[in-house]
Design a protein that fits this description.
The protein is an alpha+beta fold and 497 residues long. The chain has helices at residues 3-6, 11-19, 25-43, 51-56, 101-108, 151-158, 175-181, 216-226, 244-247, 271-286, 300-326, 335-346, 349-357, 359-369, 394-408, 417-427, 434-439, 468-481, 489-492, and strands at 46-49, 69-73, 112-117, 129-130, 134-135, 164-169, 184-187, 208-213, 256-259, 290-293, 375-379, 443-450, 456-462. The strands form 3 sheets. It has an 8-stranded mixed sheet with strand order 6-8-7-12-13-11-9-10, sandwiched between helices. Helix 10 (271-286) links the parallel strand 9 and strand 10 (290-293). Helix 6 (151-158) packs parallel to helix 7 (175-181).
């Protein structure tokens, strides 16, 4: 199998070739490695290659995805004996002691692990630019970011290194790279994919693991393997009726879908993102669905504050663990990370608990919305992908430096306007994704719109808790109505990027 042939198939298609003995796993893996060696020097998507191990240790011949190459995200998807840096110099020597449940089930599917993909430090940003690994570039426009925090996975899949790759999402980190790289990305419901055995829940239930993929059926097939609790999980969810892969081929019943395009935080939304939603809404009406302009009734700034408080707490705890286990110092972390850690250490515990309890307000508001509507439709992101380095502005550095000085001086800043300003600056470009994280509900980004310059624009659908089956049904219908596979031809025909 040559690279040109390899690029024509998704993961399910490649596995079918193996089953029918039209290609061997080694031929497929060699094609993936050849593609990686051609494009990764430009994109910087893979931070830890495991090419030799992939060739020396063939995958299981069982499993619906046997013989298909796969990349893991270098954050939380631990492989025994391999590094898991979380994109941080402070954790560059961290070696996983055992496979996570995610990796165990990946192996059970028969996937062949080729390596690990780059992520921003601790997965904190919607761009993938760490001091440890450097910037990862978007294959559609190498002057722009592929998003984050699963940006390395997004770039690798869009460029054809693998048909799908590991990702996780604590604030949009599956859906944002999917939108910026022209991919399909679904964040599952809380409890759908186990965080075990090392964790009970990632980010107190706000984060979920899954994949970014070129096709809907790859995502559904992978979730069939990943779904289900491990022994001792703190939260379980009812399994679906039948397989998710089957849902993709089922026509959904006529759905009532609420549509909104205004940012929950009051910021500007790019016209391209609005156009994507409006054109998708017209297609949905033509398919027999009911479209109404409506949005869940919640306080956007309260959501932003609650989300930032989660950041503060998680980062300060992660920094403390790195210091305890690896002797890490503050200087080993990036400037923004150090600020967030300081904010976490100085946030009063009652304030953190109060903000965590407020997540209930958003869940109740969304539940009330779903009494009338089956799904919501909105932009995945508020802006098109930033240029590499664009977000490290003097104004941003000034806010960070001033807050750090105030914190070092013992000043209380958590109830000041400066923290709100930081929240808006951090989330303004991607204001639509955090709602699904704090409510634990499933949401997907689909590449249903493209600019005249040929850049992908994602749209987001959200469902009630446990509603992945409806999302996959609609995704399959829209993939047939607005196919995007041919869009990859321009990337696939490039020997290098």
């Amino acid at each position: 199998m040559n690279v040109s042939d390899y690029l024509q198939f998704d993961a399910v298609g490649l596995a079918d070739l193996v089953r029918r003995k039209k290609a061997t796993p080694r031929e497929i893996i060699n094609a993936a490695i050849e593609r990686a060696e051609a494009v990764n020097p430009t994109l910087n998507a893979i931070c830890h290659a495991q090419f030799s191990a992939a060739l020396e240790h063939p995958a299981s011949t069982t499993g619906l995805l046997a013989g298909v190459p796969f990349l893991l995200k270098d954050l939380a998807q631990e492989q025994a004996g391999e590094p898991c840096t979380f994109g941080s110099r402070a954790l560059r020597h961290q070696i996983a002691e055992r496979d996570s449940a995610y990796v165990k089930r990946t192996r059970e599917a028969g996937l062949v692990i080729l390596g690990r993909t780059a992520t921003p430090e601790l997965g904190l940003k919607a761009v993938t630019e760490s001091r440890l690994w450097g910037p990862t570039l978007n294959p559609w426009d190498t002057e722009r970011t592929p998003g984050g925090s699963s940006g390395g996975s997004g770039a690798a899949v869009a460029a054809g290194i693998v048909p799908m790759a590991g990702a996780n999402d604590g604030g949009g980190s599956i859906r944002i790279p999917a939108a910026y790289n022209g991919l399909f990305g679904l964040k599952p419901s809380r409890g759908r994919v186990s965080a075990g055995p090392g964790m009970g829940e990632h980010w107190t239930g706000a984060s979920a693991d899954h994949v970014v993929s070129r096709s809907v059926r790859d995502s559904a097939t992978m979730l069939d393997y990943l779904a289900g609790a491990e022994s001792g999980d703190p939260f379980t969810i009812a399994p679906p009726e039948g397989s998710y892969a089957d849902k993709v081929t089922e026509t959904p019943r006529p759905l009532r879908i609420g549509v909104f395009t205004n940012s929950p935080y009051g910021g500007d939304v790019a016209q391209e993102c609005i156009d994507a939603v409006e054109s998708t809404a017209k297609t949905l009406e033509n398919l027999g669905h009911t479209i109404e302009y409506a949005r869940p009734d919640f306080d956007g700034m309260a959501l932003a504050r609650c989300y930032l408080a989660l950041y503060f707490g998680e980062v300060s705890a992660a920094m403390a663990r790195a210091a305890e286990r690896y002797g890490a110092h503050d200087r080993d972390f990036e400037l923004d990370t150090r600020l967030i850690g300081m904010l976490g250490r100085t946030l009063p515990t009652p304030d953190y608990v109060r903000l965590r309890q407020q997540w209930n307000d958003f869940s109740r508001a969304l539940g009330l919305f779903f009494e009338t509507y089956d799904l919501y439709l909105c932009p995945t992101t508020g802006q098109m992908p930033a240029c590499i380095g664009e977000l490290d502005t003097p104004a941003h550095l000034q806010i960070v430096s001033r807050l750090m000085l105030l914190l070092k001086a013992g000043r209380l800043v958590h109830r000041s306007g400066m923290v709100d300003q930081l929240a808006l600056e951090s989330l303004a470009r991607t204001p639509f994704t955090q709602l699904a994280n704090l409510t634990g509900t499933p949401a997907m980004s689909m590449p249903l719109h493209w600019t005249v310059q040929g850049m992908p624009v994602g749209v987001q659908f959200g469902a009630p808790h446990g509603g992945e089956a409806t999302l996959f049904q609609l995704a399959g219908q829209l993939e047939a109505a607005l196919p995007w596979w041919h869009r990859y031809d321009a990337l696939s025909s490039a020997d290098t990027l």
